[in-house]
Amino acid sequence: MDFKILGPIEVRTSHGMPIALGRRKQRVLLAALLLNTGKAIPSRRMLDWLWGERAPATAESNLYTYISALRKVLGSPSRIEAGSHGYVLRVTPGEVDVTLFEELAAQGQQALSAGRHDVALERLSRALGLWRGESVLEDLPLPAPLRCEAARLERLRATVVDASLEARLALGRHGEMLADLETLTRRDPLNERLRAQHMLALYRCGRRADALAVFHRARSTLAAEVGLDPGPDLARMHERILADDPRLTPPAALAARRAPAELPMAPAAFTGRATEVARLRTMLTSLSGASPVSAITGTAGAGKSALAVHVAHQVAGRFPDGRLYVDLHGSTPGGAPLHPADVLARLLRSLGDDTALRSAGPGRRPDLDEAAARFRSLTDGRRLLLLLDNARDAAQVRPLLPASPTCRVLVTARRTLTSLEAASHFRLGFMAEEETFALLTRLIGEERAAAEPRPARTIARLCAGLPLAVRIAAARLIARPGLSLGALAARLAAEERRLPELQTDDQAVRASFMLSYRGLDPESRRMFRLLGLLDGALGGTTVSVGAAADLADRSEPHAADLLDRLTDAQLLETCGHDRYRVHDLLRLFARERAGEEDSEEERAQAAWRAGTACAPRPPAPPR
Fold it and tell me: Which of 54, 55, 105, 612 has its CA 20 to 30 A from that of 203?
């Protein structure tokens, strides 16, 4: 239900239908309750407000009748409670336009004081938009105490109007303000603040003579009406305009301000992932009920960054205040993860604020908490999209999150960021074979793929749904036009050659996997290496907890814990109750690591344990 008193009194249902409020005194009674929501009003005071000193003998019974009628109109007896201290109108947050007006006015003035002029203007404009007339309850004759409260609200409205004009001037919107300022100064010709703002807007529009004429009219009006000269603020504005004071020119950064647009180039050959794209688009563009943070996790090379950038470009138009991008280097070969304070410094610079940097001093890292708080303040109320690519963990991401529900954040990471509050998690799996083939075709060209269809299909299958592997294979074919698809397919078919073949320039499947592997503890690394030895011993590349326990010579609870750690690191995936699957390329990498780090005897012992997991155990070979 909506209670409106900023103008004629009006009550509407939650569906927007108006409610008839009955006779005049009944409406005055409701107005009194609305101007004192949550406060108990004694019956005697209500009688004075409604009848004054000429209350009839039936006044008390009439008051009760009005209260009963209002309860019926409002649909619930509990709306107006009767207690020992009087009657109280109960409302929920957002139902009364006065309450919302005061909240928005306070938020706008606070943002204005903090220099966040765009947020201030948005809040103040919403506050003014709640008014439907020139005065509070303008259709009712109010008793003196209520007239005082109405006058207070009208004074607050004037303050909000003044603050909104200040915000518009600060944002360089002087041209669009002229008509409003002319109207306001005609209504309130003695308001020197309005006159000064009108002069400034005219001057910034290049109308210096008109600005000076406004001053002369103001001086004449003040002399004729109240016998006074212009005050110091108006006189100072006149002097500055005469002197062409450079401080009157709007800051160039504001006048030419552009929203940051930092997204990398959209991947030209992006293919498939229709379900994931649709889901992420919905999460990023939903106005209510959506999580503000969407975290995409998956195996190295699964295409997390490509998916995030692709979707970010698709929804960019929904975020007119900017699209920010940072590569956090959480899994960058040869690089260290960025410190959150350094990331915040960059984000603040992108938004035109270096307060935290100046306070830190030259060459020093800004205070993390101060920079994070400043970033939250600066993004409050803005429609911003923030893409945090390649995150190390939740601790790196957490200080970088805006608090405003108008912002959306996309995060990519290898590890699942389970401790990240208010996040929706998307695990990006491997591509289907048809999608993999379609990606390869788009990269090398339909003509070349059609010339050797079977080898093209073989290459796609051997890349095992890993986009990074497909792109590397395609890059090798593009770099060597004379290399046939059949020749590359034959090289990839040999398992010992597959990972060495899947590298080019600065990209390599092996190097990408290595970063995830090095992030493991020693026990988890050992389990991963041993899984590479399966090779069909237990039905291919799937393994149960029990079989993994035998393979590693560990208890089942310990083995289950290790398998879960590998799953969190995206080096393993679950495929049913207590069963796990090793991706084909990861299995080859694990076997390589076992050959490098484990002795032949250790590998033989593990293979023997794995081979006897589901069969009678023969005598153990000599140690």
Answer: 105
Provide the pLDDT for residue 495.
86
In the block, which residue shows the tokens 């305009």?
Answer: 241
- Phi and psi at residue 295, to the nearest 5°: -110, 120
CA–chain centroid gap for 612, Å, is 53
> For residue 343, what are the CA distances in angstroms to 359, 372, 374, 503?
16, 10, 13, 31
DSSP letter string, 385-398: EEEEEEE--HHHHG
* CA distances, 195 to each of 86, 156, 388, 501, 571 (Å): 47, 19, 47, 75, 69
Are 462 and 492 contacting, i.e. CB atoms less than 8 angstroms apart?
yes
Which amino acid is residue 50, in one-letter code? Answer: L
How many Å apart are CA 305 and CA 388, to the nearest integer? 9
Instruction: Tell me how crowded residue 502 is: count the other CB atoms within 10 A of its CB.
Output: 27
Length of the chain measured in residues: 623
Q: Which band of pLDDT confidence, cut at 50, 70 and 90, is reported for residue 26? A: confident
Q: 441 falls in which pLDDT band (50, 70, 90)?
A: very high
Question: What is the C-alpha to C-alpha distance for residues 286 and 153, in angstroms, rounded to an integer?
Answer: 35
* DSSP conformation class of 126: H
Confidence at residue 533, expressed as pLDDT on a 0 to 100 scale = 82
C-alpha torsion 373→377→382→384, nearest 10? -20
Which amino acid belongs to residue 348?
A: L
Rounding to the nearest 10 degrees, give the CA dihedral for residues 521, 522, 528, 529: 150
Tell me which of 359 and 583 has the higher pLDDT: 583
The tokens describing 59, both together, are 């006044």
304/417 Cα distance (integer angstroms): 14
